[in-house]
Amino acid sequence: MIRFNCDYQEGAHPRILQKMLDTNLVQTIGYGEDEFCAEARAMIQKACEAPEVDVHLLVGGTQTNFTFLAAALRCYQGVISAETGHIAVHETGSVEATGHKVIALPQVNGKITAAQVDEYCHLHFSDGSHEHMVMPKVVYLSESTELGTVYTRAELQEMRAVCDKWKLYLYVDGARLGYAMASDACDVDLPFLARTADAFYIGGTKQGALFGEALVIVSDALKPDFRYVLKQNGGMLAKGRLLGIQFSELFRDGLYFELSAHAHALAMKLKAALVEMNVPFLVDSPTNQQFPILTDTVLDALSEKYSFSEQQRMDEGHRAVRFCTSWATQEAQVDALISDLRRLMGA
Amino acid sequence: MIRFNCDYQEGAHPRILQKMLDTNLVQTIGYGEDEFCAEARAMIQKACEAPEVDVHLLVGGTQTNFTFLAAALRCYQGVISAETGHIAVHETGSVEATGHKVIALPQVNGKITAAQVDEYCHLHFSDGSHEHMVMPKVVYLSESTELGTVYTRAELQEMRAVCDKWKLYLYVDGARLGYAMASDACDVDLPFLARTADAFYIGGTKQGALFGEALVIVSDALKPDFRYVLKQNGGMLAKGRLLGIQFSELFRDGLYFELSAHAHALAMKLKAALVEMNVPFLVDSPTNQQFPILTDTVLDALSEKYSFSEQQRMDEGHRAVRFCTSWATQEAQVDALISDLRRLMGA
Amino acid sequence: MIRFNCDYQEGAHPRILQKMLDTNLVQTIGYGEDEFCAEARAMIQKACEAPEVDVHLLVGGTQTNFTFLAAALRCYQGVISAETGHIAVHETGSVEATGHKVIALPQVNGKITAAQVDEYCHLHFSDGSHEHMVMPKVVYLSESTELGTVYTRAELQEMRAVCDKWKLYLYVDGARLGYAMASDACDVDLPFLARTADAFYIGGTKQGALFGEALVIVSDALKPDFRYVLKQNGGMLAKGRLLGIQFSELFRDGLYFELSAHAHALAMKLKAALVEMNVPFLVDSPTNQQFPILTDTVLDALSEKYSFSEQQRMDEGHRAVRFCTSWATQEAQVDALISDLRRLMGA
Amino acid sequence: MIRFNCDYQEGAHPRILQKMLDTNLVQTIGYGEDEFCAEARAMIQKACEAPEVDVHLLVGGTQTNFTFLAAALRCYQGVISAETGHIAVHETGSVEATGHKVIALPQVNGKITAAQVDEYCHLHFSDGSHEHMVMPKVVYLSESTELGTVYTRAELQEMRAVCDKWKLYLYVDGARLGYAMASDACDVDLPFLARTADAFYIGGTKQGALFGEALVIVSDALKPDFRYVLKQNGGMLAKGRLLGIQFSELFRDGLYFELSAHAHALAMKLKAALVEMNVPFLVDSPTNQQFPILTDTVLDALSEKYSFSEQQRMDEGHRAVRFCTSWATQEAQVDALISDLRRLMGA
Predict the structure, then answer these.
(1) Cβ contact C27–B92 (<8 Å)
(2) DSSP-derived 3-state class of residue C239
(3) Which of residues 238-257 of C touch B (CB under 8 A)?
(4) Is the pTM of this model over 0.90?
């Protein structure tokens, strides 16, 4: 079985494991206050060209999202998200479990617009008395989105302006941030994000680490006491060094970007082949997740050799499915898939 | 100013106040364990033809909703509601504040259907692994809805069947239950509800009481320990007698139904007059809330003498607004409104 | 049965009921924005000699406590309380249900000291890294306490200084504030509280109202958006007028203080008689709650005619019990109790 | 610097790292449903002689505690713990953050007794009306405790009986379970725990793993839907394989017990030397944490070469401190410490 169903089915880049081996018996203090974490934080600040940001290293994406939101929101405040946002549908209500509503807005290709947020706030919060509704306080975006699409600089700047207008924080879920930044369709880089968002995280789990997400807090208002919230929500790893080691390796010599580019190139190779076969897509994704629409016959045949994830039934006979590449995907695996697709499609 | 903007702008029916006066210095024990509450509970059980139901008397509707849901849901479960449901939009996220997601479904005229709930559950919970999503456990309906519409026996029976299929509790918000039951369009009565829902509440605040909602718990699974949840959520009134007195008066000699019929008749008189004037409606409401669409000119003129609530802008020049009647509305007030409308409309 | 077991077993002072009757059909807007609430707020601001404080009228004490604390605390912060504090033991964990720890300190006679709070903070928060513990942010006191004792101005000023030192809010639960202020042992008045606490509430339920507690928010940091928290927690009464009417009557012509003095005088009469009979006390209470230690024989005989509440078994043969007077207690009731006690004690 | 301040300052046993390397590019499905996790679960079931228990693998101890308790408790229920319990003091109120009170009982040497729990329940829950208090539902113990002490089989059986009497769940925090079981003072083993507790966890983080705690759920009532709670609380690791690999290595060929015995032997060597030097102890700990009371002079001198954790100031001039050994401690490190202690003590 060759797995394309997600981008977290292998371990980690060998350099990370090697560094763990090399440092295994070095004694450090715990909870992220060790020298490996310090190095990782400094490297991320440097990559962001933002020495003043706070960087916290957490274990997983759901944890990072609800922990950040628990810290950012007062009890009567909520977070605006696309209705397809990961926090809205795939985190078992973890945000609500911390007491906060996810205010879901309709999406197009996994994205919401600044105009939508502005309209929502205008409709509900433009005159005096709104205390019967949840006050929106954070806008949550994913870069890239659940559907592989990306926000551009222009779109994020518009969203920033609307957030300033309504006193909202802008938070970007970067579980696949590297894969987004590797795309030609995405002109965003880390320094831009650090100038534009109030907080964002740089995903490690799907991007070459065993696990780990680096939360970057830009806004001074969000910095104080964050480690309390981290501990309270189970996000303060005893052997924090493991996160420090991983992120310092990922950001040493540009490995993070190199791995992202690798995954991206293979996804584009697959996409080009599908386009050539005239396969339609659920959405035109410029990143490492591809959502072709194929016949049940083809998919059933493919599933004997490949795994992919089910996205949506289109009609009797066709389904949209998801193929992901990752830092660990081998070109031969993609070539085999393309070749089998060609054979099955009679192309 | 004659107020039609809501149905809770006066005090209480005089019989209730008189009974409070008469019993004022009677000493009772607190927290709803007094003889007045016992009487009210017995009268409600009798009206429901269901001696086995538990009845709890709470102060307000929001409190009743979140307290019941906090008791009914485990931490990973949520409640399905129309996207216009009171818990979804007008309770400042009180359900989320207790840790639970409101799963909002699209509505038509304020209602959701059994088929929608079935489809949602089928789509997300028909095969093995759903633990990344909030598990639906309660279906929340309002009788009547925020838009004045009603669920019929047939609709509630279908919803019951779907709830049984997916092991969901059916809960009915009856803030305006009397007004619903007074409508020709609604064939539901209390015994039917007590046979069909797992829990529901009989609204007092909008229906003749100073305050108070009578929560009826039908399902045995929901009965144990409810008073703990009541106390924890601030819903256990020290002088519970005040609730007992009000509900025993409302259910003595059918006062509750009489007051509901009064409000209904006046709403229908207003509706008939509007129809006669060819006024369109946002929704065809058969209950005490009416949503005519009128011109800004007419509404601005009306607003000097009458209050009503803003519902929705329809276009440049027209708005849908809400007029409510209640147990306290006087026929002369409705007649004055109709007369002024006729004059302003040139009808 | 003559009831001394608590101070909330009658209805309300007749002037309150009369005013409700007189205004019953006056139409007002809801949710505390009516003219009765405005008047009550202004009267309380005046009584506090503090026109700048915010005043919110809630229904009950538990609700007031957890709503205020939910608004005042961030998710990682907690509230310091005497281990006997009402929030620590008698509110079914309502503070914890909003996500916050009650940090319970040992008490003497129901009270904690400034020195204790200082020591706790010094021990746990005097050096750099405390993020594994709940950060204390509010000190909760009751005036009078669960054991009838009072805090003096000097004690509250010391607590204020410690709160300033550690950046804590000082919050006073005044469910029995009038009864405390009526005592010779208590030199606190409303203007002093409004200068010293960050927030406090003036109890109505136990002090002449049907229900209602007036929360006074002094600190500017605690004022914004409080009505959202009020609504979210079920504390925004639809017919807020009922609270406005009650508090404006209580503060008109000093009724609140008059009723408090009445209860106090009767408690002192009972206490003096008990002292004369050489009855020991669990605690020397200078307020409306008295805690004599009596023999089981005497208590069993008394219980045929009087109700009182059980406080604590002292030894085989003796129990401490609680007798409360209130605004509604009649002198004849106290005289009867004293006379029966004398007879049973053979005094 | 030689570190004795805690038992989680190195990486993992080399066999674990080697297995991670060997399997690094094996593709697996995520979220703990892979074959490595299946193997680990089976090995733990076998070690517990309990094929029917559920085993879930989580990342950290705080996370395991609050996730389990969130699943086990209804909203009005709480957990009984020693006042020194980890959940009571060192987890930043994470249990309260999920809405539940930690009911703290006084401890002796870090332990609470069955008699204490029985008395607490008897005092507060033996007659009819307790709904003003949090209902206790879980008893939380640590094996070994924060002070290094252990519960014996006899003590746990007594606690089990009291739990049965009051319908409480018995939950054992086993962050240092191996170290406890390695002690002569502790006659508990895994099969005994699986027969006696309703749930417990087998600590990995402090016992040879990079991270990871294996939660064993014995009681059928606690099994359903646990993975929802796991996901909601951020405890479902995307690459769950990492947990599976670690626990299967730890339980292969008895490595877990071997590492525990190693740490224990070194702790006993240190303890024996301290006893020989007539050093008093804060508590007589039979496990890997030792709490000697030493002079400031000695400790200041030691601190230049060794790290230890501060436990408690005893008087002017003496402090109790904590030295931990672990699976990674080398005998030479302990020998050096003993030798330096002897020199500094003039022994």
Answers:
(1) no
(2) coil
(3) 238-239, 241-242
(4) yes
